[in-house]
Every structure is written in C-alpha cells, then in structure tokens.
Amino acid sequence: MAVSGGYKHIDKDPAKNKSYPYAKSCNLKTGTTNSDYILFSKIFTDAAYEALPNLERPTSFTETAKNEFWRKLFTQTVQTDAASVKTKSEIYISRILKLEVDHYRIFFKSSNMMSRGTIGSSSRVIAASPTDASEWWFDIVQPSLLDNVLFTDIHQSVAGSVVQFLTGINYDGPVHTNGYFSFGGAPTFKGIVSSAGCTTASLNSITDTSTDCIHDYGVYLGTTLNKNFNGTSAQQSAGITNYVKNNTSVNFNGYNPNFADSWLPLPTNSTNQIKAVDGLDENNAALPEGGKGLRLGANDGVQLFAGYGNGTALTQYDPVNRKWIVPEGETEYQFIRPIASKTCNETAINVNGCSYNYSKYLYRIDENKNISVKDVVAGSGWSLLPDKFNGLLYAENGFQSVIGPQTNRSTAAGAAGTDNSSLAQPAVASFMGLTLASDKDIKIRSDLALAETPCRNSVYETQNINPPCKDRKNVLGLYSQSEYIRIMKQAPNNVVIHAALMASEKEFHVYNHNTGGNRGPINLVGGVIEKYYGAVGTANPSNYSRDFSYDKRFQEGLAPPYFPVSPKWELLDARSTLQKFDNIATRQGKAADF
User: Are 101 and 192 members of one domain?
Assistant: First the structure.
C-alpha cells in the first residue's frame, strides 16, 4: 500500500458525521505473496474464523496459514459445488483511505458473482454486480483518550494509596479507570462511570499494547476491595452496581455504570509530538497539513494570551454570549511569549508569588496560522516566519511556568459551581488550537481560559449563545509524558482551566495539596487523563476541590493539535451505515459464464 500525493476530502463520514479535510487516498498494489496480507492475520482473532464452515477456514491458525487464507480470498475466485447448485464469487480491496494520522479505512467489494441451479436437464444462471451501496469497509484506528472528563490508568496515588470519590466531588461528564474505583460518601456523577477492572500488577507489567490486561472486576468501598462477583462480564458489572448503590450514597444521576469495560492504554512516549513540532509525521515526512511548531529551548516557561495590536490582552467579557470581545476595528491574534527565567516563593499561597523575566521575543499568530515575531527589547517591527504555525509548543526541559495574561487575579474562595470564566482573561484566542508538550513537569501558575468559553457538559445542548457551543473552535491541551502537571501556589482561588490535561506516567495534582486554606473549586472544562489519581486538596478543607465538566466538543472530533491518542488500535466497520455486500444488482446469466 502506497500513499498517494493527492488528498481526497470526505465531506461527511456517514458513520461519525465527521469531516476529514486531510484524508489521503492510497495507491493499491495487489499482493502476490502470503506475507503481503499479514495485516488481516494480525487484526482478526482465531475465534473469528470459527464462524466459517470447516472447509472455508484457514488450514490452521498459524500466521503462515492465515496469510495464505487472506491472499486467496482477495486474489482468487471462490467456487462452491453442490449436487444441484454451483456458485462463484470474488472479493477485492477496492480502495484505502488514510483519514487521519492514526485512522485508516479499508473498502471491499464483491464481483463476478454467479449462481447456477440445475434440476434434471434444466439449469438457470443468475449473475450479480455490485452497486454503489455494496461497498463494505472497516476502520483501523487508534482511539481518542478524550472521551471522559476523568481518565485514570490506576485509580490510586503515585504512592499507592487508595483515593476515594467522596461527598462534594462533582464530575459533570463520563469518568473511566483501567483499574478500580473507590466510593465513599455521596459523590455526584453526570455521565457514565466505567472501570476495566485491570489488576494493578498487570497494568504495571504490560509492555505490548496489542495485548490486554488481566481483568478481575471489582470495586473499592472505602479502602476495601471486593472482587467477589460471578457470571458474565455484564452480570458482574450489574452485581458491582447493585453493591455500590446498596452500600453508599453515590449519585449516578440515572446513568448505568459499566464496571466491566475495556482496557485503554496510555501513550508510552512523546515521539510524535517531538517530530510534529519540527513539521514531520511519524515517518519523518512533511506533515500533510504543513506548518511547524515552536521549541521552547532553554526558556523556563511560556505566557499565552489572546489580544490585538502589538500585544494588548483582551479585557472585556460578553456574559450573554460567554466570550471575550475584540475591540471594534482591531484584529484578534494569539500571542506567545517565552519566559526566560523566574523567581517564585513556592511555600506560600500568593498570586503575586512569582516575578517573571520574559524573553525579548514575542510571537503573534493570526487566524490563518501565519506567525510573526518581534524583538520587544530592540523595538523592531513584526517579521513573518516562513512556516505556518501548527499549534504545537514543545519544551525539552518542561514548562516550569505556564501563565495567561493575568497573573494576579484575586477573588474569595467560592463553592462548587462558582464560575469565574468572566474574570479569567483568555490565554487562547477564539480561533486557536494549542498543545503544550514535554517529557518533564508542566506547572500552571494562573488561569488558563479560552477566549470563547467552552460550554459545560450539562448545558452543552441547551445553552443559547453565539457562536453555539459546538461551533467554538479554540482548544488547549497540556501533555507531560513522564512527569507531573501541577497547579502551583500562585494560581488564584477558583482557578479557571479550559483544557485537556494528560500526565501519561504520573498525575495531575495541586502542589502541596494538604497545606494552606480553602481555595475554592478548580473550574475545569475539558478533561484530565492521568496514570494515577492526583490529589487537589483535603476534606478539611485545604487547597482546592474539584468541579470538573467535560468538554463535549471532544466527542465531536475536536482535539488539541497533535494531542496523544491511545497506542492500542481498534476496529470499526460499516454496520452503522446502509452499506452492505448484498446490495447488488442481479440479471439473467448464461451457462457459458460458468
């Protein structure tokens, strides 16, 4: 299979109602050796072949025999002979599309279909041809990790302590763990709660993401794990659900939990992001959409802000349409300013606890992704860079400070539901998609808000604003492969974070979460994906509480640029459409056709 140079735009995918503006069609080359068909041998389990009659199966379930089976299926006419009926048909791969970086669709059609029935000296031949609706396909895709407001691999602290869902916790959206949840008190969930029941030992030992974890379904009540549930996976899930409902005050809000869900592994490296920041794909070819990102280099961190002109931040909020306003006659830009160094008091909670020494360079991006730079110390004008900006920032040494335009917002700590979006000046412009990626720590020291406030999950379908919830395009992602994402002591009370946060090998947490007074809720609209379940405060209370709401735009295909996906490939097929192999046109054939 070779990828062609041209693009094939799919206006709407009937299976997902989604567009693929950078889809590529692939050149097909008929395989002549068994090994050319190893893809099909790899993705279909041995159990799948058992649905076939014995004579139609591979001669054995070895890789060699399965490769031969697929080669013959796609390159030879299949003929069956019975006493009074004979048939023959062919199946071939009609086309292959690369819809996205990690998403391929393979199409099949049948041809030369014939059937001859014989009674005595009489016979009749029926021939059939495929139609536009007789093309079948299946997808090979790496699934998104942005389907939940909370995703944990192991639902414990890094130190191994069981962390409970307690009274006051509010998750407005689906939550998932590959391990076991712990319930206590009366937490509230406004989405499906799911767990895969993978043993901690198996999650810590898996090195091949094409395999599966060891499932042993169960749940913690407090710090006691109960795995004494019998029957099928569905029956065990129902038993766990009843056990939780009968022994806690958990509010599932009518959603039916799934405590026997699938395992979904986290990324194992940041190689794709490291390449994408330099404008390369996974094969070291130029990205199909073009553009490059920015490397932070020796700088300590970065300031992000939506603004206009030569670097004036937006200051006026429209509470009716929930967005920040660009002054009339001005053009909105995304500004990025590296932080060369900082001096911070890391022991006391204080929004003024850091002083920043900014780089002399200020970057400005317009809605067409043109990026310019100016030397603010020398007072030079804007210089247009040769490559468009692809939305990715990479920091080899971590982001020791990530801040928005306002670093000293001060408000009293509020209760859950306290929305400070109108006070948090925007870090990300209304047209911008940004991802900050590193193998090291990422430290949040202020609000990180979007210029067009994303809608909370519970009002996504009903909120009447302009632009509508689903049409807001600004998005932010923070990704640390090997270390932590931390909220530091300079962040304000009721901190606002509109982002997807991923700590693939560690956790998202509040720095020194068990010291200091009540700081109100973390107002997060987006999602948190983490290896372990990080703490944000205590029940005293000290520090923050959680008020997390899912950004439902993620379910509709929006994602921060080059945000990681799961390394485990999944299969989808055409069952959700009207495409069928038996959508064929028949005609009277001739005996000579056989």
Answer: no
State whether 131 and 159 are in the same domain: no
Query: Which residues have a Cβ under 8 Å from the Cβ of 389 and sit 6 or more positions away?
Result: 291, 292, 293, 294, 365, 369, 370, 371
274 contact partners, CB below 8 Å, separation of at least 6: 394
The rounded distance, in Å, linking the Cα atoms of 491 and 488 is 6
Cα separation, 474 vs 418, whole angstroms? 22
Does residue 326 share a domain with residue 186? no
Q: Can you read off the two tokens belonging to residue 59? A: 């001669």
Cα–Cα distance, 190 to 171 (Å, whole number): 6
Residues 169-220 have pLDDT tens digits of 889 999 999 999 999 889 999 999 999 999 999 998 888 777 789 999 999 9
Closest CA to 543 of 487, 478, 471, 462: 487
Q: What is the pLDDT of residues 137-153, one digit of tens each?
A: 888 887 889 999 999 99
pLDDT for the residue numbered 250: 95
Proportion of the chain above pLDDT 90, given as a percent: 61
505-546 residue pLDDT tens: 999 999 999 888 889 899 999 999 999 999 998 877 788 989
Is 444 inside a domain boundary? Answer: yes
Classify residue 395 by burial, with Cβ atoms within 10 Å: 0-12, 13-18, 19+.
buried
Question: 407 — phi, psi (to 5°)?
Answer: -110, 10
Half-sphere exposure of 272 (CA within 13 A, CB side): 17
Chain mean pLDDT for the chain: 88
Do 447 and 581 share a structural domain? no
Domain that holds residue 95: 2-30+77-142+572-593
420-433 as b/e, with b when 16 or more CB fall inside 10 Å? bbebbbbbbbbbbb
